[in-house]
């Protein structure tokens, strides 16, 4: 079984009820944080997960709303671990530069803490792996593979497929439908997909906000992707505009037009247990 928790279901629009985009995936003894939007560690703390517990940080792309709290993850892990434990960050090309820039911004803080604490003698230890395709993880029964997605002009962007004990979960990140995402999600037990309500965004008068239609999947498009890939469960997140209480059935109905499997959506901390379909 793989456990998926939607830590943050928000978007660039600040929402008092929703943290920024982030998903926690627990597989066996391993815990993967996928993206790190605003408030991610506060949400993780609510389910008993701290920065020190993260096996690896997986970044789908480098849009600001998906990496807002990268500095918090780096710093909090550094000061709450008492043996040298490098943070592994797996992301698309450009990730190393973003991590280096974040460390540069933290330079004063790092120097203060090293100067104050006798047992902190070195800066945060971070290992970055930049990837666009292929298998990127294979430890203790967990396999993670990566494929390109389409979020242009943001590129490259990637999705992750996590497999454990016969179960599989794909995290699409921000993407419009594309063949590489279809292939990555093929036969998966669950697909976590960011979505927008095209019908509502089209009504917004500002062109800048309507521009998001160009490079995000609508609910219907995400459902089409799930149907083509024959996934078991479609998990919706990153709601634009924000999902408000009482609207859940409206969003689900849009997905139901194309996808006839289970559809999951909800507030931050919504949890989904993903099991192999052949043992349900």
From TrEMBL:
Pfam families: Lactamase_B_2. Homodimer. It comes from Mycolicibacterium hodleri. Residues 19-216 form the Metallo-beta-lactamase domain. Zinc phosphodiesterase, which displays some tRNA 3'-processing endonuclease activity. Probably involved in tRNA maturation, by removing a 3'-trailer from precursor tRNA. PANTHER family: ZINC PHOSPHODIESTERASE ELAC PROTEIN 1. HAMAP family: RNase_Z_BN. Keywords: Endonuclease, Hydrolase, Metal-binding, Nuclease, tRNA processing, Zinc. The gene is rnz. The keyword Iron does not apply. InterPro entries: AtsA-like_MBL-fold, Metallo-B-lactamas, RibonucZ/Hydroxyglut_hydro, RNase_Z/BN. It catalyses: Endonucleolytic cleavage of RNA, removing extra 3' nucleotides from tRNA precursor, generating 3' termini of tRNAs. A 3'-hydroxy group is left at the tRNA terminus and a 5'-phosphoryl group is left at the trailer molecule. SUPFAM superfamilies: Metallo-hydrolase/oxidoreductase. It comes from the Bacteria. Gene3D superfamilies: Ribonuclease Z/Hydroxyacylglutathione hydrolase-like (3.60.15.10). Its cofactor is Zn(2+). CDD domains: arylsulfatase_AtsA-like_MBL-fold. Belongs to the RNase Z family. GO terms for molecular function: 3'-tRNA processing endoribonuclease activity; metal ion binding. Transmembrane segments: none annotated. This is Ribonuclease Z. Its EC number is 3.1.26.11. The active site is at 65 (proton acceptor).
């Amino acid at each position: 079984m793989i456990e998926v928790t939607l830590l943050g279901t928000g978007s660039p629009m600040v929402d008092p009820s929703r943290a920024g985009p982030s998903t926690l995936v627990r597989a066996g003894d391993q815990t993967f944080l996928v993206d790190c939007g605003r408030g991610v560690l506060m949400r993780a703390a609510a389910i008993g997960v701290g920065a020190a517990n993260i096996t690896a940080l997986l970044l789908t792309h480098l849009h600001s709303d998906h990496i807002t709290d990268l500095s918090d993850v780096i710093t909090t892990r550094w000061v709450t671990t008492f043996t040298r434990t490098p943070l592994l960050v797996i992301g698309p090309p450009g990730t190393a530069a973003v991590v280096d820039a974040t460390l540069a911004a933290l330079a004063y803080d790092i120097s203060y803490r090293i100067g104050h604490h006798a047992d902190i003698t070195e800066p945060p230890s971070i290992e970055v792996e930049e990837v666009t395709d292929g298998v990127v993880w294979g430890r203790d029964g967990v396999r993670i593979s990566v494929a390109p997605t389409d979020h242009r002009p943001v590129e490259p962007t990637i999705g992750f497929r996590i497999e454990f004990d016969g179960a599989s979960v794909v995290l699409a990140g921000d993407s419009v439908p594309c063949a590489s995402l279809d292939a990555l999600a093929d036969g998966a037990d669950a697909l976590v997909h960011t979505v927008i309500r095209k019908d509502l965004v089209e009504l917004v008068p500002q062109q800048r906000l309507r521009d998001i239609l160009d490079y995000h999947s609508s609910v219907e498009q995400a459902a089409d992707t799930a149907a083509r890939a024959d996934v078991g469960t479609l998990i919706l997140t990153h709601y634009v505009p924000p999902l408000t209480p009482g609207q859940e059935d409206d969003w689900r109905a849009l997905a139901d037009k194309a996808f006839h499997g289970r559809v999951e959506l909800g507030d931050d901390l919504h949890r989904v247990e993903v099991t192999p379909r052949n043992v349900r």
